[in-house]
Amino acid sequence: MMYLYRLIDLIIAFLTIGVSSFGGGYAALGVIQGVVVNQHHWIDIPTFSDMVTISQMTPGPIGINIATFVGIIHSGILGGIIATIAFILPSIFICYLLGHIYLKYGDLNIIKVILKSMRPVVVGIIFAAGISLLISSFFGLEGFNMDTLNPLAVALFLLAMILINKFKKLSPILMMFIIGILNLIITSFI
C-alpha cells in the first residue's frame, strides 16, 4: 500500500512539473529541481547535478531522462515509467491544444504578443537552473560560501568554456568525457 502512495506522489509531482515547465527540457530543470530536490527531498543537489550530466550524455530530451532517473530512484522501474509518462502527458495535451489554436488563430496579433513575451521568461528559468547547478558544483550543498569553494571544479569549468569557444564543433559529449577523465586523473593524484 505504501508503494502505491509513492507512485501516486510521483504521478502528481511529474504531472505538476509537466504542466508548469515551459520552454523545453532545460527550462524544466529549475522546476524539476524545485519539486524533486527542494519540496519532496527525493534526491539531493549533487545527485541532481549528476543526473543532469548523465541526461545530457544519454539519448533523448533532458527533462524526460531526468524524470525517468528520478522515478527509478524513487520507485524502481515502474516508477521510472510512470514518472516519464506523467512528465510528457501534459506536454502532449498542451501541444495538441496550442497547435490547434495556433493553426486556427496564429495570425492574430495577440497570439504573436503572447508567444514573444514568453521567450524572456523561458530564458530566465534556464538561467536560474544553470546558476543553481553552477553554485552547487563550485560550492557544494552549503551554497555560496567561499570556504567551500572547489577550485578544481572552477578550473575545469573555465577549461571547458575555453575549449567550447575555441573548438566550436567539439561534441558536448566528447567535452564532458574529456573533462571527466581529466577530473579523474587530477583527483587520483591529489
Descriptive terms for the model:
7 helices, mainly alpha, 190 residues, globular, 82% helix
Describe the structure.
The radius of gyration is 19 Å and the shape is globular. The protein has seven helices and no strands. With 190 residues, the chain is mainly alpha-helical. The longest helix has 44 residues. The chain folds into two domains: 145 residues, no CATH class; 41 residues. Helix content is 82%, strand content 0%.
Write the layout of secondary structure elements.
Elements: H1 2-20, H2 25-39, H3 45-57, H4 62-105, H5 109-139, H6 151-166, H7 172-189
Helix pairs in contact: 1-2, 1-4, 2-4, 2-5, 3-4, 6-7
Low-pLDDT residue spans: none
Q: Find the structural class using helix and strand composition.
A: mainly alpha
State the shape.
globular
The span between the termini is 48 Å
Strand content: under 5%
Helix percent reads over 70%
Count of separate DSSP helical elements:
7
> How many domains make up the coordinates?
2
Main beta sheet, described?
none
H/E series: HHHHHHH
Number of strands: 0
